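Hi R.,

Here's the chain you asked about this morning:
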Amino acid sequence: MPAERLLPTTEAEDLLALVREIARDELAPHAAEAEEHERFPRDKFRLLGKTGLLGLPYPERFGGGEQPYEVYLQALEEVASAWMSVGVGLSVHIMSSYALATFGTEEQKARWLPDALAGDQLGGYALSESHAGSDAGALSTRAVRDGDHYTVNGTKAWITHAGVADFYTLMARTSDDGGKGISCFFAPGHVDGLTAAKPERKMGLTGSITAQLAFDDVRVDADRLIGAEGDGLKIALSALDSGRLGIAACGVGLAQAALDEAVAYAKQRTQFGRAIIDFQGLEFLLADMAAAVESARATYLQAARRRDRGLPFHRQAAIAKLICTDTAMKVTTDAVQVLGGAGYTRDFPVERYMREAKVLQIFEGTNQIQRLVIGRDLRR
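And the predicted structure, written out as tokens:
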């Protein structure tokens, strides 16, 4: 049963109807097989690009859809509900375009942003390192200025789309001044010296490529520096606020898919001569799942509306990421319980949903870090 939505315009209603059609006809039928065989669905991202979804929240003059985050996130939720790897990939691409779109000069945006949003290109976000995850300011990948370019050396870890991305928003150290020594680059994805390791063997999201990314004397043109030297950590944290809303929406989409599957199963599964949804114990469990999904959706939409109105949303983004991803973990686990033994098999999608939900509590800042962000904001 599709989520009920209150959208701000008829244009947004038409957009969501199109996204639902794509999700139903082009994504959902292929998800289980691709995930089982760990196939990266590059063709699906080209399809999303052709329909304008890879640039949805960015300005029309650069080829974007110029939609508010309130609308973009609900479109993202529909994609994630059909196929989580594609939803996460869409969120990562949007976040990877954020630094250029928000902090780039007009010349930089005119030069690179249209291609990034057009659909043929896919982005990656190269911030994390093996020893610098939650502590992003500790990263050690270094970019050294050499005339009209920078030479980059180091290794990034846990990079979505590593090796297949056409560009990366790269955070690299340009001085030893701690967090103030980090700079941001709009780096090309296919260049000499840039290699990706073998993809990680993950619990879930097996259709999404995650790998280490090694820079060995990679030349990045100096005009690809976004902002000034030393602005990188500020840019990265700003991008993460918006990126966390994307992961929150993905979490709600996954939870909605699990709820839908659980309700459908409970209606047709009979025991003791009755559909199991008629038993109050199960009925109450499903009711709690539905309440959690709708509450989580309201949480990310509240943060999105603050963002759209230019209000501070740093704390609200952390709250949304925390609530929505914890909800995804709880609802997908409960969906397995509703299906019983069947839910523990790969004949039904809920076991995959549960595996996919776990990582949502980890990336874009663990949920422990979200609590830290919220607490620090309250102390101000």
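The mean pLDDT is 97.

Let me know if you need anything else.
M.
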